[in-house]
Recover the amino acids of this structure.
């Protein structure tokens, strides 16, 4: 098969371009003679004779007949060379003499007559008897005739034909007015069809298909750095997930629920009753907060969905939302999707307290007439700060005074160290009715992939959040909900052991970072350590984290991505310490290569 060549667009017939003819066929003697006749047609012709006056036009034939270059394009069809005779025609056409000479065969097949013809305006020819016409029904058709071509004319001129000139016979005078062969009237054969690939038409896309509210939000930094860790084989201390599973009895509870068919189909929209009841008991026993499990507890697909559903339900377009900076990256995206305006209040490191602190005056100054909601996070990711009772009391007083709603992210509520205590803001006077409290099982029980979270609050607030949540995931994590219901009833010793283990891991990695030359901010909660790279002679945390895998085989997260103004956290880097001891020891050893 020949190679594919795209076909040229067909733009009509070009007389000066050759066209493909069908493959040659075997010819008999008579047909070979006809080929020679055709070759003579293309030979140089004598000068044309002077034009003769034309009789009145006759409409029985086409007014234009294509030249021979077109005639030769007519395809040969089966049965064209049978030599069949066609019946005579009784009408003909008188044409202005031309410059070309046609050679025709007579009835004997061995003599030729040279006929000067032209293409011009047809006219009514004079009658001519059949005995004197050289174009009788016995005329042999040319080799290009075929059953589908028009029948050659039998020329019978009408009365009034000019008499022969001196020295001319009647036949020669008649031949001056003979029309060209009728096969020239056939439609030119179009160019051969070839396969041409068809490119589907596509409607033009808008310049920016992404909702303008999410302009600037691309792939999260956690996905980017985790992919970098996998590509380089580095130790991943960036994304915050443990490298060990939680309690074995909780995992077996999930397996048991699967085998018993509990949660394998759609669970109830608000969550399975067992889990909602366990969440209500947890809040009452630990913090003294009483919630109705049927109307004031909502199970979600992790804390991230609970935050999104809360902001989408409670924030109107144009409302201002105050968020503690640096903030978890989903906060900014959820505020944008709700149409709100993010107003950051920055936590800044305090050397005297050795932690990041909240400036209460800055918080109060950030509240305006358009402020709708305060978004808190304590224990705070990424700084590890745990807001004190005084800080939380000031936030609560401001919210009550300015009639603000509060959404608080408390997923690290059980991961606090060094005597720090987690206090839910909903416990302060006037706050239960205006607060949505969010937490999850992932961080507390080390099953981050199960994505079981929850939100608690007053009936009206939870109803609003549930209205939004049902159009996000609707339901999720069916069998895992039963397992987490059992996990929330674990004894206090489990939480004590969890905190002690994470505190030891924090100190192990923190000592290694200090030995490598980092400035370390000791965290009071979460399982992240924030450091400063200035003592290493570095100025750009983002560039530092991109090159760190090649330099040391360790991945971390630049805190600059958690600030509205990246310059505020340009030299800060976050490390996760929720890993095995040997992984943390190896990471600390590798990072010592950076020591000045």
């Amino acid at each position: 098969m020949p190679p594919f060549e795209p076909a040229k667009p067909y733009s009509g017939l070009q007389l000066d371009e050759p066209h493909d003819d069908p493959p040659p066929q075997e010819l008999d003697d008579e047909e070979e003679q006809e080929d020679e006749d055709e070759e003579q047609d293309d030979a140089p012709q004598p000068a044309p004779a002077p034009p003769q006056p034309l009789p009145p036009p006759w409409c029985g034939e086409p007014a234009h007949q294509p030249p021979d270059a077109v005639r030769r394009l007519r395809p040969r069809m089966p049965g064209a060379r049978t030599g069949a005779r066609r019946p005579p025609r009784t009408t003909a056409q008188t044409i202005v003499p031309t410059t070309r000479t046609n050679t025709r065969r007579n009835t004997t097949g061995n003599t030729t007559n040279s006929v000067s013809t032209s293409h011009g305006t047809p006219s009514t020819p004079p009658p001519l008897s059949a005995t004197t016409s050289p174009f009788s029904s016995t005329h042999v058709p040319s080799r290009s005739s075929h059953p589908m071509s028009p029948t050659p004319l039998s020329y019978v001129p009408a009365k009034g034909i000019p008499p022969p000139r001196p020295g001319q016979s009647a036949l020669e005078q008649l031949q001056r007015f003979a029309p060209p062969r009728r096969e020239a009237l056939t439609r030119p054969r179009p160019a051969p069809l070839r396969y041409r690939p068809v490119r589907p038409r596509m409607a033009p896309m808008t310049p920016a298909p992404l909702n303008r509210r999410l302009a600037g939000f691309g792939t999260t930094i956690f996905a980017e750095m985790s992919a970098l860790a996998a590509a380089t084989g580095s130790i991943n201390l960036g994304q915050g997930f443990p490298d060990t599973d939680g309690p074995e009895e909780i995992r077996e509870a999930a397996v048991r629920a699967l085998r018993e068919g509990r949660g394998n189909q759609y669970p109830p929209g608000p969550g399975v009753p067992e889990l909602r009841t366990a969440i209500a008991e947890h809040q009452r026993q630990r913090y003294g907060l009483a919630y109705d499990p049927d109307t004031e507890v909502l199970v979600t697909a992790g804390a991230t969905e609970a935050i999104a559903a809360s902001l989408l339900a409670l924030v109107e377009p144009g409302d201002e939302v105050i968020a503690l900076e640096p903030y978890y990256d989903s906060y900014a995206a959820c505020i944008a999707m709700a149409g709100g305006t993010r107003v950051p209040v920055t936590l800044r490191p305090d050397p005297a307290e050795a932690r990041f602190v909240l400036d209460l005056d800055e918080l109060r100054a950030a509240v305006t007439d358009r402020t709708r909601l305060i978004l808190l996070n304590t224990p705070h990711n990424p700084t590890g700060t745990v807001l004190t009772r005084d800080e939380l009391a000031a936030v609560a007083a401001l919210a009550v005074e300015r009639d603000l709603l509060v959404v608080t992210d408390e997923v690290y509520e059980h991961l606090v160290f060094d005597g720090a205590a987690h206090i839910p803001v909903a416990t302060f006077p006037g706050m239960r009715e205006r607060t949505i409290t969010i937490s999850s099982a992932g961080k507390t029980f080390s099953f981050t992939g199960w994505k079981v979270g929850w939100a608690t609050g007053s009936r009206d607030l939870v109803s609003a959040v549930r209205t939004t949540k049902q159009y996000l995931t609707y339901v999720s994590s069916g069998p895992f909900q039963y397992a987490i219901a059992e996990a929330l009833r674990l004894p206090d010793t489990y939480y004590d052991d969890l905190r002690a283990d994470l505190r030891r891991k924090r100190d192990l990695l923190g000592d290694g970072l200090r030995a490598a030359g980092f400035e370390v901010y000791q965290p009071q909660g979460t399982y992240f350590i924030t450091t400063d790279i200035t003592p290493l002679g570095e100025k750009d945390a983002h560039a530092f984290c991109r090159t760190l895998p090649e330099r040391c085989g360790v991945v971390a997260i630049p805190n600059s991505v958690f600030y509205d103004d990246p310059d505020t956290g340009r030299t800060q880097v976050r490390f996760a310490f929720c890993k095995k001891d040997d992984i943390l020891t190896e990471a600390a050893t590798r990072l010592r290569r950076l020591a000045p």
Observations:
- The chain has a mean pLDDT of 79.
- The first helix runs from residue 29 to 41.
